[in-house]
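sorry for the late reply, my laptop died twice this morning and i had to redo everyting from scratch. anyway the thing you sent over, i finally got around to it. pasting the sequence first so we're on the same page, its 186 residues, then the predicted structure underneath. double check i copied it right bc i was rushing
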Amino acid sequence: MRLFLLNANGITVHECNEASALRIDACGAPAADDTWVASIVTCVPSPRAPERHALITRPGAAVTLGPDRLGAGVAELGHGDHLFFVGAEAILAGDALPKVIDDATADEPCAVCCTRRGSDGRTAILACPRCGARACDVCWLSAPGGYCLTTGCEQLAARDRQLAEPKPSDFCIWLDDDAAGDGEGQ
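ok and here's the structure:
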């Protein structure tokens, strides 16, 4: 998942992954020290599960997830969620390409056509980054409508495409020209 952060410095992109938490200070800037008010953590609960993302907020933090003001605690994050800080906004983009499965389970037959990798032109087993569903590359690329084979998932199936990114008009806050000087937004 990627975090698109709009503050007085413009829009910056930050990667949220399992390797380390992304900590954000009260003004919406990445924080490397103990000044953070919100932290985005990524975990994979089991080998076949998709990544999950959570927002951890400290007591007294002025952080809003969509319309909900958050107190100290944990909230699950998803694609398209908006986070609001003092003078900053962030949009989470969960769009990702299907992942090639390299582990021992890659030799299992495709869950859709029951054909093993390496036969009938099947070269890989792919997993949906959103729901974790697995299928061979032939089934994955022939998915109806170009979306994941799981009903209601809405993850695009194309393996070679540009990831979706929020446009400046997708952000809800606007920063005036004076914002760069005092950090206050409208």
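Helices lie at 137-141, 179-182.
thats about all i looked at so far, will dig more tmrw
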